[in-house]
Write a structure and sequence with these properties.
Blueprint: H1 2-29, H2 37-62
């Protein structure tokens, strides 16, 4: 079950990255007379979702105790 959550967090993180890049592209490339600020805010929201997923993945694995056995 733990690995399924990790996979889902990874998929959401990659999707959020793609969404943020696309929205930032729309912000930078498209000239709209009303302004492009909604695209910028969507790009920032996508980046925040990416950061939250990455933090969740890191925190899930940082508490795991891993023993390192030195044989020599």
């Amino acid at each position: 079950m733990k690995s399924l959550v990790d996979v889902l967090l990874g998929i959401v993180a990659v999707a959020a990255l793609g969404f943020a890049i696309y929205q930032f592209y729309l912000f930078a490339a498209v000239t709209d007379p009303q302004g492009n600020t909604p695209h910028l805010w969507k790009a920032i929201a996508g980046f925040v979702v990416l950061c939250v997923c990455a933090l969740a993945l890191f925190l899930r694995h940082s508490g795991a105790e891993e023993e390192i056995h030195i044989t020599q």
